[in-house]
Design brief:
heterodimer; A: 99 residues; alpha+beta; 4-stranded antiparallel beta sheet; 4 strands; elongated; B: 445 residues; Alpha-Beta Plaits; 10-stranded mixed beta sheet; 5-stranded antiparallel beta sheet; 11 helices
Chain lengths: 99, 445
């Protein structure tokens, strides 16, 4: 199944850093998220888009993971030549990930 | 126990006004805060102010305040906003004029000043830029603005002086909302839980509709009722720090633990260390509890003492960006778009200037995230070419090249567009708080 089936996500940015949350619809799925949606999995999934490291923060009481992706936005909103300079659309790609 | 209600009137510079007005009329608010100052906006505003000293505040300020002032005055709702941008004094003058025109008497309008340190940024050239690690010296000749993210102190002082409308320049978004709690309840900065809770409330409210079901809907999975009529949020909070977030009955959207969790984690990075000028908030143990329809209680926020530095956004000119687009549709459109890309690539190679960060996107295929996969036979595809140049003329040339695909490129290109923008980039530095002198200015109608 796709991550989209069990979790939702919102993406924000600060400079050249992307911040993607992944939130389980049901707390019971949190352990599965924790197991499958790792920093390494994101690094593979996003490929060249993310040049720096990816950190993961865990919020079990909310069934949520918060990812911080460094050097991920081609310079960030104030200097990138990308169409989506904030990278706001990135989180939805993560929800396509098979788990 | 004393309780107040704080509403959110805008989540960004160009946000809708109707939901704010609805909230002011029906929300029994004590305060409404309008957040309207993105990271780069203030640098652009500084440029405008240089061209016209009366400008430099939010372009929608007059439009908004013409509707907000009469209701604020009638319902005794105090208004706090960072829409002063690069010119809070200019904004105060404009609001005073509006108030007088509407016959609103005894309105005290305050400007919070001190965030603009453009005049002394040259003193910090050896400070490292947070984004690059290189000294600020590296961009010294290109700097056009420098604004410190102030905390809630100036706003609290203005409230203490009986101000009805408070206009700031650069203030951290959550601080706009924290200020009335500190003023009303006398919360001490040493009270970790209250500072954390107040900052949490500010963070939940600062993007307005993003916590009431905006930026949330996903058909089939996350259904949001009447999204077209999205209501803006308010928080009711008592002096002990207990409260809930909700929206007006009869408006669209929804407030649930899921909408609150998405907003909680929005752009905060490490939930244990969310640094604001007022404290280092810790949201890592925040919980949400749905107590009624569209009503969510929050708890678990705490904080640590603030750092002794202010973050300063330094705006600098960084060349120009040229962009051109052209669409292809129907039979074999992907191949024609790819040929167009080849043509432009070759053309740009022959230009006598350097283009950096050059991108070729196929909108509908790979413009948002490149998955290295081409679709079989798309119905349409749009080529986008964008790159950076030193001069405006060069950027214009780049954009024009794409347009010339009309008569010189593959068959059937249509809907060309082009644009050229000056790039204003942001470098952040941390400077000692003691170097920043916060001042207040008042006008009474």
């Amino acid at each position: 199944m796709k991550l989209w089936e069990i979790a939702h996500s919102r993406t924000g940015d600060k400079g050249n850093i992307s911040n993607i949350s992944v939130i389980a619809y049901h707390l019971k799925d949190y352990d599965l998220l924790k197991e499958k949606v790792t920093s390494q999995a994101l690094k593979r999934w996003y490929g060249e888009q993310v040049q720096g490291e990816i950190l993961r923060y865990e919020l079990p009481q909310l069934g949520a993971l918060n990812f911080v992706l460094y050097d991920a936005l081609g310079g960030g909103v104030t200097s990138s030549t990308a169409l989506d300079k904030h990278g706001k659309t990135l989180g939805a790609y993560l929800l396509q990930m098979p788990i | 126990m004393k309780k107040i209600r704080i509403g959110s009137g805008a989540g960004y510079a160009g946000d809708r006004l109707e939901p704010a007005i609805d909230l002011m009329i029906g929300g029994q608010l004590d305060y409404i805060c309008f957040e309207g100052l993105a990271e780069r906006t203030i640098a652009l505003a500084q440029k405008n102010k240089k061209a016209d000293p009366a400008s430099g505040y939010n372009e929608l300020l007059d439009y908004r305040m013409a509707q907000v002032l009469p209701i604020a005055s009638k319902k005794k709702i105090r208004v706090i906003t960072n829409m002063g941008a690069a010119n809070p004094i200019g904004a105060v003058n404009a609001i005073a004029k509006l108030a007088e025109k509407s016959g609103l008497k005894n309105l005290k309008i305050a400007a919070v000043l001190g965030d603009d340190i453009s005049d002394k940024i040259q003193d910090y050239l050896d400070f490292p830029v947070m984004e690059t690690g290189r000294p600020l010296y590296s961009i010294r000749n290109k700097i056009i603005s420098a604004n410190a993210y102030l905390g809630c102190d100036g706003i609290v002082a203005a409230l203490d002086q009986g101000s009805d409308i408070i206009i700031t320049g650069r203030v951290a978004d959550p601080s706009l909302f924290l200020a009335p709690m500190i003023f009303e309840f006398g919360w001490k900065k040493t009270d970790a839980i209250k500072m954390g809770t107040g900052t949490l409330i500010g963070h939940l409210l600062e993007c307005a509709g993003q916590v009431t079901g905006g930026y949330f809907a996903d058909p089939g999975k996350k259904e949001v009722p009447d999204l077209w009529n999205l209501g803006f949020p308010y928080v009711e909070i008592d002096s002990s720090g207990k409260g809930y977030i909700s929206k007006l009955e009869g408006t669209g959207g929804m407030v649930t633990p899921a909408t609150c969790t998405e907003q909680l984690l929005y752009e905060i990075h490490d939930p244990k260390n969310y640094i604001t000028p007022d404290c280092i908030a810790d949201f890592s143990r925040v919980k949400f509890n749905q107590t009624d329809k569209d009503r969510v209680e929050f708890n678990g926020a705490t904080s640590r003492e603030a750092t002794d530095t202010f973050k300063v956004s330094v705006g600098y000119t960084n060349g120009f960006m040229g962009e051109g687009q052209m669409s292809y549709g129907g039979a074999n459109c992907l191949q024609r778009a790819l040929l167009a890309k080849k043509v432009i690539e070759k053309r740009l190679e022959h230009l006598p200037f350097t283009i950096s960060d050059l991108r070729f996107d196929l909108i509908g295929v790979n413009s948002l995230l490149d998955r290295n996969k081409m679709p079989e036979a798309p119905n349409e595809v749009r080529l986008r070419v964008a790159g950076k140049t030193v001069s405006r003329q060069e950027a214009q040339r780049l954009a024009n090249e794409v347009e010339t695909l009309y008569t010189n490129g593959p068959a059937g290109g249509g809907g060309a567009s082009k644009k050229v923008d000056e790039i204003i980039s942001i470098a952040s530095v941390l400077i000692p708080k003691k170097d920043v002198d916060i001042q207040l200015m008042y006008q009474t109608t």
